[in-house]
Amino acid sequence: xxxxxxxxxxxxxxxxxxxxxxxxxxxxxxxxxxxxxxxxxxxxxxxxxxxxxxxxxxxxxxxxxxxxxxxx
Length: 72
Prior knowledge:
43% of the residues lie in helices and 11% in strands. The chain is built from 2 helices and 2 strands. It has a two-stranded parallel sheet with strand order 1-2. The N and C termini lie far apart (30 Å).
C-alpha cells in the first residue's frame, strides 16, 4: 500500500513538471529554477526507497529544458 502512495506522489510531481505552460511565441521562453529535496522513507516496507526516488525524479526533471535544477 505504501509503495503505491509513494509511486503516486512521484508520478504527480513528474507530471506537474512536464505540464508547464508553453511560452508565447513572441516572448522568450521562461526557465523555472527548481530544487529537488531528498525524500525520506518511513516504514520498513519502503526502506532505502528515498534516495532512489530522489535520483529518478532528478533524472526525469533534468531532461526538461524548461527547468533549471539548482542545488539545495
